[in-house]
Amino acid sequence: MDLIKSPLERSKRSPVRTCVGCSGRDDAEALVRLVVNVAAPDGVAPDGVAPGGVARVAVDLGDGRFGRGVHVHLRTACLRKARSGGIARSLRCAVEVSLGELLEQVVEASNRRITGLVLGAWRARRLLVGADVVCKALEAGAPLLIAATDAGVVLERGPITRAVAEGRAVAWGDKTSLGKLVGRDEVAVIVIQDPGIAQEVLKARRTADLAGEARRQGE
Ligand SMILES: [Zn+2]
Asked: 63 with 25: CB under 8 angstroms?
């Protein structure tokens, strides 16, 4: 499902981070960043990390600049180890969030991230709506199609089936939720024209898929 990267993107190397689960080092892109909010034992949440405090863990799929964070692979084994010890050792606090809650948060954060990216593309006029326009843009090499999960027959159109086959497509939201983002009643297909935004949407979608998979394994 990888996009063909532009020379500019290829030259941007992803930093390497250590997984708090397996302790393996990996591309930051292969890991998800957890941001930890720590409440002190008396219930007051200090800014820093209090030894002995209890951590609420949140997922950061943005640019990774806020909060105190740790990185972890989105795999059940790594997440389990991170929960039971890795996060606590790294940040010297107990973790009160369950694995299921954590994965739920990953899915929610992915959806928020995609919503933000789509809105950003819309405001920057780097997004197109409407089957004919979308098909034309895909034929001209647009980097990403977003199709509503209930898009229906429009998915049978040539440029759209090709985009799906080439991995230039993600299924996300339904016609009503996509429509809401761009001020219409219903939208079945959207094209993102900005390669950078397209790449980020793909990444967030993959993250959500991985979390869903890990959730099923954990059941
Ligand atoms: Zn790991």
From this structure: no
Cα(173) to centroid(ligand 1), Å: 30
Cα 72 to ligand 1 centroid, rounded to whole Å: 6
pLDDT in tens, 9-48: 444 567 899 999 999 999 988 888 888 765 555 544 444 4
> Under CATH, what is the fold of the domain 7-107?
Hypothetical Cytosolic Protein; Chain: A; (3.30.1230)
The rounded Å distance from CA 32 to ligand 1 centre is 10
Note whether 188 and 152 are within 8 A (CB): yes
Paired tokens of 68: 């105190």
Distance of CA 192 from the midpoint of ligand 1 (Å): 32
- Predicted model pTM: 0.80
Nearest to 31 by CA among 61, 11, 57, 2: 61
CATH of 110-218, one of 1.20.810.10, 3.10.100.10, 3.30.1330.30, 3.40.50.720: 3.30.1330.30
Distance from the alpha carbon of residue 41 to the mean position of ligand 1, in angstroms = 29
Measured in Å, residue 179 CA sits from the centre of ligand 1 at 38
